[in-house]
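Researcher: Let's do a round of design. I'm pasting the structure tokens now; please hold your answer until I've finished.
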């Protein structure tokens, strides 16, 4: 999805974001970068943030690349788009649109359960943050 978008919009810079989990051989951002380049996207258009461990950190750690922008296009799995857009708006005051990458049907149930739990954590964190301020 990101490569197709980048090819259609050659002026757009991309941020590959995501760290390396304990069971992963490579940081997610590095895999994204590799795949974008394999699909013909010039490396100079790709910014890499390979330290984040959550969606909020994806935005926080990528801030140097998008800081000053009023909006972003988020490319992620279809199940994750609503929460990613909510985080962009609530935590970073970013307008967003999104490109949805389809999730394989066999994995969808597991990820949807994970998303529900992530929403609970996100909203609890947001309410706590608001109460502190």
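Researcher: That's everything. Go ahead.
Model: Designed sequence:
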């Amino acid at each position: 999805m990101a490569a197709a978008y980048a090819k259609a919009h050659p002026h757009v810079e991309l941020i590959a974001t995501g760290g390396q989990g304990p069971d992963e051989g490579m940081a997610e951002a590095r895999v994204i970068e590799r795949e974008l380049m394999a699909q013909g996207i010039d490396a100079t258009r790709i910014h890499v943030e390979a330290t984040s461990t959550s969606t909020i950190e994806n935005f926080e750690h990528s801030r140097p690349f998008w800081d000053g922008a009023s909006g972003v296009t988020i490319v992620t799995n279809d199940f994750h788009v609503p929460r990613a857009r909510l985080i962009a708006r609530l935590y970073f005051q970013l307008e967003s649109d999104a490109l949805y990458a389809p999730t394989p049907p066999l994995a969808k149930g597991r990820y949807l359960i994970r998303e529900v739990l992530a929403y609970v954590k996100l909203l609890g964190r947001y309410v706590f943050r608001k109460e502190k301020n």
